[in-house]
Design goal:
About 25% of the residues are buried. The protein is an alpha+beta fold. The protein is globular. Helix 5 packs across helix 7. The chain has one domain. Strands 3-2-4-5-6-1-7 form a seven-stranded antiparallel sheet.
Length: about 170
């Protein structure tokens, strides 16, 4: 687990809420505090799509079980935008399994292990500072920590390559 304090909050927020940089991530959970506090569970309700023809994007997110940031971004943007700064927010985003294999497998070289873990980034704003905190999750105890370190390293490079300045 690694914490990254974002130095240029406004620039990061532009990339998060109006750019496509995080669109491939899945939304596990979102909480936004403005004039009210909004809680969003990123789980897809399968019943909503029952009996309808799905687009490729809908089919992909339905299979993953969570909405993509691309789908949720406009809603979150609408809740945050305005003349006043939000009191705070928290987004828990997950790297989809197929991208974890693509991005992280070259260093780890163990696809089965990558399929057992979820690679997360928690984006938290408390009204004064914005943090991105990496984490991993698995359904059972896995003593190996190499994949966690690779995820931390990948996310650090991801921020740097996308001109997001941070303090770790």
């Amino acid at each position: 687990m690694q914490s990254y304090q974002i130095e240029e909050i406004k620039a990061f927020m532009g990339k998060l809420l109006t750019g496509t940089l995080f669109d491939c991530y899945l939304v596990k959970e979102a909480t936004i505090s403005t004039y009210q506090t909004f809680h969003i569970d990123g789980h897809i309700n399968d019943e909503f799509y029952h009996g309808t023809e799905l687009s490729d994007e809908e089919n992909t997110t339905l299979t993953a079980g969570y909405s993509s940031w691309k789908q949720m971004r406009p809603l979150c943007f609408d809740l945050i935008k305005g003349k006043r700064t939000p009191l705070g927010f928290k987004f828990i985003l997950a790297l989809p399994a197929h991208l974890a294999i693509t991005y992280l497998n070259t260093e780890l070289n163990d696809e089965s292990l990558l399929n057992q873990k979820t690679f997360l980034v928690n984006v938290r704003y408390d009204g004064t500072k914005l943090l991105c905190v990496t984490a991993t999750s698995s359904s059972s105890f896995l003593p190996e920590k190499q994949s966690d370190q690779i995820w931390d390293s990948y996310f650090s490079k991801f921020l740097t390559e996308n001109d997001i300045s941070f303090i770790s």
